[in-house]
Each structure stands twice: as structure tokens, then as C-alpha cells.
Amino acid sequence: MLYEPRSHETAARYRENILRCLEWAEQAGVMLAIEPVEVNLVKVSDTLRLVKEADSPWLQIYPDIANMKSLGIDPVTELPQGRGHIANVHVRDSLPDYFYGVPLGTGNMDFIGVFKALDAMEYRGPLTIEMWNETEDNYLDIIRCARTFMMDKIRCARCS
After folding, report:
1. Residue 42: band (very low, low, confident or very high) from pLDDT cuts 50, 70, 90
2. Which contacts qualify for 3-8: CB closer than 8 Å, 24 or more apart?
3. CA distance 105 to 83
4. Do 74 and 68 touch, CB atoms closer than 8 A?
5. Which end of the chain has fewer CB atoms < 10 Å from its terminal CB, N or C?
6. 79 and 118 Cβ atoms separated by less than 8 Å
């Protein structure tokens, strides 16, 4: 993806606006979760600094393991840094410098390692599989296969 140039001012405005949105979210009882994809927040550990600064149960982290892996960040070692602050985990396959549409099982994601890391940190939240199959006639079959694929990886992680 091509973005406009960023600066220290951009990062400051991002932080300021997240904290402003958090005030509104707290009033409404709505949780915000940051997906670490911005230049200054690409790791769980980077995002955790902002979450801890906000010091609110209404601001958490929503890591995308494929974004991390595609950027050369190991999700197996990065995820545990967000222990207690991960609201959801975005799960999909990855390839280097490729961010969209990698079919499950065709990329380089260590799903078993990821699920072992999540178990070790006692993560009990949701997992969201991101997919791009809306143009496929058999999209429901693809979704069923994705669920089966993930459940198999989870079972393998717990058995090894």
C-alpha cells in the first residue's frame, strides 16, 4: 500500500486522536483495539507503549500475525509482549512483502508456533481469520476449509 509521507507530527496526531477517541469510547462503554500496522506502531511492543500510556481497559491491541511476518517481525516472539492487552488476534497466512490474499497453507506462517505462543500466554480471546474470497462461488466451502485448517493447527499446537 502506498501512503502519504509521515513525520513526527503525524505520529503525534495519531497518538492525540487515539486518546481523544478513547475518551468517547470510555463514555460509551466501547473497547478500542489498535491493529499495529502504522509506521510508528508495527509491533505489539510498539503499540503496548501507547496502550500503557492510555492506562485504560478500553484500549487494547488487535495484532495481525501476517502483517508482522510480512514485515520481518516474528509473531511467535512478539505476541507474548502484549499479554493481558490483546483483544483479538487477526490470523492469516503471509509471504514476505505481500499483505493480501495469501491462501491458508500456502505462505510462510508458523501457525503452530503462533498457537503455542498464545497458549503459553493464556490468551483466551477471539481469533479472526481474514480472507479474500467474496468473488468465489464456493465461498462457504472456502470458509469451512479455513476453519478446519485453523482448528487442525490449534490441535497440533496443543499436542506437540
Report:
1. confident
2. 3/39, 6/39, 6/40
3. 27
4. yes
5. N
6. yes
Return d(Cα 71, Cα 89) in angstroms, integer.
17
What phi and psi values does residue 90 have, to the nearest 5 degrees? -85, 115
Provide the strand spans (E) within 52-148.
59-61, 89-91, 127-129
Model pLDDT for residues 8-30, shown as the tens digit of each residue = 888 889 899 999 999 999 999 99
What sign has the CA pseudo-torsion 130, 133, 139, 145? negative
Q: Is the dihedral of CA 72, 75, 78, 82 positive or negative?
A: positive
Q: What are the Cα distances from residue 6, in Å, to 39, 65, 74, 83?
A: 8, 24, 25, 29
How does 66-82 read in b/e, with b if 16+ C-beta sit within 10 Å? Answer: bbbbbeebebbebbbbb
